[in-house]
Amino acid sequence: MAKQAACHKLECGAQPTRPALSWPHVAAHAMASKMQRALSTREPDLAALRRLAEDLAQQRGQKPTTTHLLAAVASGQDDAAQLLLERRLDPEVVLKAARITVDDAADAMNRAIQRARELAGRGGAGRTEARSVHVLFALCQESGTAAHRAMVQCGIDVTRLRVVSMQLAMGIAPPRRPVTVPVSANAQREGLRSSGIMPSAPVARTTPSTRPPTPSSPPPPSVRPSTPPVTAKPPTPIVAVPTPPPANKAPAQPAPAHKPPHQRSKKRTAAPATRADRFALDPKQFPLLCALGQNLTERAAKGELDPVVGRDAEIERALDVLAKRYANNACLIGAPGVGKTSVVRGLAARIAEGVDVACFEEKIIVGLEPAALLAGTAVRGSLAERLGQIKTEVARAKGRIILFFDEMHVLFGQDAGDEAASELRLALARGEIVCMGATTEQDYRRAIDSDPGLSRCFTPIEICELSPEEALLAIEGVTPIFEKHHGCRYDENALAKAVTWSVRYLPSKALPDKAVQILDLAGARARRRGESAVEPLHVAEVMSELAGVPEERLLETDAERLLRIEELLGDRIVGHKQALARIATVLRRNASGFRSKRPIGTFLLLGPTGVGKTETAKAIAECLFHSESAMTRLDLSEYAESHAISRLVGAPPGYVGHDAGGQLTESVRRRPYQVVLLDEIEKAHRDVLEGFLQVFDEGRLTDGRGRTVDFTNTVILLTSNIGAELSPQKSSTRARIGFGPAPVRRDDARAKEISAYQDAVAEAARKALPPELVNRFDEVLAFAPLGRDDVAEVARRILRSLARDLELSRGVKLDVSGAAIEGLLDAGGFDPEMGARPMRRAIGRHVEAPIAEMILKGELQRGDVATVDMENGKLVVDAVTPA
């Protein structure tokens, strides 16, 4: 009420007597008129807006402030002006506010224009020049400006205006529909036309809330009445407020545009109070709804609901469904956390504001929790009696009440009972109640879609998860609420990191809920520590606890990690330096944007068993996605039949397992950032292999439910044993003897053998696999068999890992000599045809088993050292106690 009173004071204040215009004033007015004509033919640039703001301040003998800049924005005809006019902020109202509002900073106008340029520089809809909508966003951003104070005093929801202006600036939202701009008599008296503020004639611009009048209809009023005219049929008296006297009722005909200012001010002063009160329910007439439910429309009118961003399409669909003649009950279907309840809140706010709700202006949305509805109904028939009472109260409102049931499937489950479900089903079928419900897809299919009679009463509306860009806009809309609650400011980078990291490392949850939870927890932690801002470091701490990813890995940028990817892969993979370099090159190239809509990388790894193909997949998962578990592994030897492709994408409708989804598509849909490992592809059926063609080429795959799964954030590795019978010695040519060239060095000979082997294996793969499949690989890599030195290095790494685990778990150190490594190689740890796996078995047999036996016998105590060495040609494990 204080805000509305302040706005009323601004509009109804005494007008100063206008002096006679001298020649400087006439020149200023002529210049402003010229600027107005320029602004009406094109979108104003920042320089024109600034000049117009300074001229407005000079004409009134005032110091230029951001309020004059806001008036300059409102005087245009572009999207920014439409946003202000939709909220009754015309230039006249803004200039009145300029009398009593001041900026905190002396250069507030310069800072607003500079911030507008920065926002435009980030780009939006392919445009980079700064426009008036960027200026409007900048003015809404700074709470210490005179323009921000003027909007607050006039009762404007600045947060909502800021979000909408950002959407327009970035090209996300469509252009605004024009609104009617009547020229008031007060504006004529002040000469706003000649000063360049008002156009020379009223511009006929309409919105759905202000339709153009027909020839037989009276002209539209300048201010929309807050209560219906007396000529219309009054609604059912459900509002618990005193009846106003007849003299204060709205006129039978709309007021003319030249209504005196003091009468218009009374209408505006009463509007905010009656807007919330006319949605209130009388507890005497609606006792059960008031006791169990929440009046969402009344709370929206009072400004108690959080703003909703990015759900305009779903809100429009819900309004269309509720306006139907049959099956006018909407069922919102979506995963937990996608924002089903937010759609209902947005619908309530739309009704409270009266925007595009011609047939819902008097509707009241009442939210009912099924748990509260079922409480205290253990006696048979009590729930049906309670539902009957709700039906009676809804009928008493004569169609004004819309019920909303969150977790609606509970009402038709076993807890509710058949009697209550039948009562509710009958009321829905007869149209006695209109309701909205929210549930998940699985619960909808189980509780509602399985009942043909019940499913006919509902129209399903699928609520999909917001994209990261849309989620960021939604979070920016609710950030001021969290800042007020926690008493700290959120850094813009922290908001972006919360969205990015939650998408990558919390795939089982949905946006925007998971990002909001992270930011809420980070704000609580910053407040507890007495810090004034939430930085990316706080978000990283919370994310590390939720996802188990080290903080330093989160704070490390992708560019730094990609530049070191060869080093990171080499820490885990022994040998194959050439193959790892080619993998790193492809990953860096595709991660930089040169990949269209394909996966990050698609590689075919060839070679015998035990050379490190699977270990390479694990190393890539850890380097790119910070965890070995970020990988889906499928053995394609299990897909030797043509019908086995249904296991990958899910069974078609009507078949067993349709609701379960596919093994591959469900895994990638739940975790988009991961490595997909397809083992032994040569054993899969040709139809199964051809099913991957669109994955490799377009980065997408359609599952059995018709949903498109995105593979553009995955790395796909395929392994095969094709060409395993070949060897480097057989693939290379023998050197000439006699009077031939000088013998080459051993290293050069080994390199030539490996190169010839890789070419032979790659050629064998091209002959064995379909050409359309091979043509879609980024790289075809052949892993040569490991040499003796390579296996020795594998043994050292295995023993170092064993020493760390032994010291952490038992407090025992491990010391292995170089002779022991050679002994492990001779004791069956090296086999050229088997790779590194024999070495792991040799270590388990000759090192791990003796140490385990010594620990059980008590020969190795905490603080002792277990030594492994060669004695008389045998591996010996001893226990040494340090002095």
How would you sum up this structure, described in words?
The protein is an alpha/beta fold and 883 residues long. The strands form 5 sheets. Strands 1-3-4-5-2-6 form a 6-stranded mixed β-sheet. A 5-stranded parallel β-sheet has the order 10-11-14-9-15, sandwiched between helices. Strands 16-17-18 form a 3-stranded mixed β-sheet. Helix 2 (23-41) runs antiparallel to helix 3. Residues 1-32, 34-43, 181-273 and 732-739 have low confidence and may be disordered. Residues 259-269 have a biased composition (Basic residues). One of its GO terms (cellular component) is cytoplasm. Residues 786-877 form the Clp ATPase C-terminal domain. This is ATP-dependent Clp protease ATP-binding subunit ClpA.
The low-pLDDT segments are 1-32, 34-43, 181-273, 732-739
Structural class by SSE content: alpha/beta
CATH architecture of the largest domain: 3-Layer(aba) Sandwich
Order of strands across the main sheet: 1-3-4-5-2-6
Domains, number: 5
Number of strands: 18
The largest sheet, given as strand count, sense and whether it forms a barrel, is: 6 strands, mixed
The proportion of residues forming helix, as a percent range, comes to: 40-55%
Return Rg in Å: 36 Å
User: Could you give the distance between the termini?
Assistant: 83 Å
CATH class assignment of the largest domain: Alpha Beta
Strand content: 5-15%
CATH T-level topology of the largest domain = Rossmann fold
Mean pLDDT, all residues: 78
The outline comes out as: globular
CATH superfamily of the largest domain: P-loop containing nucleotide triphosphate hydrolases
Number of helices: 40
GO cellular component, one term: cytoplasm
Organism: Labilithrix luteola
Domain AAA+ ATPase: 326-465, 599-743
InterPro entries: AAA+_ATPase (IPR003593), ATPase_AAA_core (IPR003959), Clp_ATPase_C (IPR019489), Clp_N_dom_sf (IPR036628), ClpA/B (IPR001270), ClpA/B_CS2 (IPR028299), ClpA/ClpB_AAA_lid (IPR041546), ClpA_ClpB (IPR050130)
